[in-house]
Amino acid sequence: MTTMQKIVTFLAAIMVAFTAFLIWPQKDQSEGFGDAETPDPNETASTDATPDDSPESEPVEPEPFELTLIHTNDTHTVMDNIARRASLIEEIRGASTHHLLLSAGDVTSWEIGRKAQDSLANAVFMNHLDYDGMVLGNHEFDLGEGVVDHGPLSTYVKNAAHPVLGANVDFSQDQFLEPYADYSYTDAPVDGRINKGFVQTVGDEQIGIFGITHYKEVVTVPGDVSFADYTEAAKQAVAHFESIGIDKIVALTHIGVGHDRTLAKEVAGIDVIIGGHSHVTTNPPNHIGDTLVVQTGEYDTNLGELNVVFDEAGKIVDHSGKLHPTKNAEIHPDTARVQELFDEATALGIISYEDFIGHVIKAGELDTYEAFIK
């Protein structure tokens, strides 16, 4: 090998060694010197914190709301079992925490000559049984003998100590009934008024209740009173209650069970329909979609009891219903005596609420009367 070849070979070896040095993997200069490794900003830092050993509190499930609806319809001033009805009502109230007592109308008789007395009788007894509300039935519009002012209805309304309902009824052209009309859904009902509906607070819950009366063709003497379509009126009532956050809604109707079923199908949001006019019994309650439909029959034969359970969204998740024959109930002695006092007053021709109270006082039995109304 010549000297030149040796020089070239030597330089080539140096170049190979230098190239190898450049491409050889380099160690992290901090490795082995105890310095902390710089954390990757994209990595989640682990923690050595001791986990909390205290038990986590379980979420509190909302309690279901149970409501008992005590109901009557088409009693038509049949007073034979009024004392027994009172006893049954108190028994059911005593067995339930939350309850309402409601009438689906036709509390009056169709015997024209008895209208004024009948209206007073119903005002007296329904007040003292502490009804929470009623809807007007077609026979509430019957006229008294020889009067043209819906006298019996006026007598009842002005003496009623509970809301009287008619969401689809217009009294604006009736000079005798218009003074009693209040076209509102009130949360503060005033005695002696007719409302579209009202809000009843039961326990911590609010219940929306509205009333629907039969269309004009079957109202005995409508006079200047007019009636709107009941389906549209019901939709407006439900929309009102839902707009103020109420999701438990009861319709009191006097349109007949067939129309009740139509109402349940066509108007969403009604939980319970307590009906009248058909004089039929629904035992067990009819279940139409999400709506329960009930009636008790006629002439105070039965007292209805419907127990419903609402979930937190206001949907009925359970229910049970029964009809209590009034003739099987025991008679409370104070109730029986008040009925006798009223019969005496009727025989004397007393047709005003105030005069009836005066008769009780004159008879020296105010204590008996007050014991009944408590």
Automatic annotation (TrEMBL):
One of its GO terms (biological process) is nucleotide catabolic process. Residues 50-62 have a biased composition (Acidic residues). Keywords: Hydrolase, Membrane, Nucleotide-binding, Transmembrane, Transmembrane helix. One of its GO terms (molecular function) is hydrolase activity, acting on ester bonds. Residues 30-62 are annotated as: Disordered. The chain crosses the membrane at residues 7-24. InterPro entries: 5'-Nucleotdase_CS, 5_nucleotidase/apyrase, Calcineurin-like_PHP, Metallo-depent_PP-like. Residues 68-280 form the Calcineurin-like phosphoesterase domain. Pfam families: Metallophos. Belongs to the 5'-nucleotidase family. This is Calcineurin-like phosphoesterase domain-containing protein. It comes from Planococcus rifietoensis.
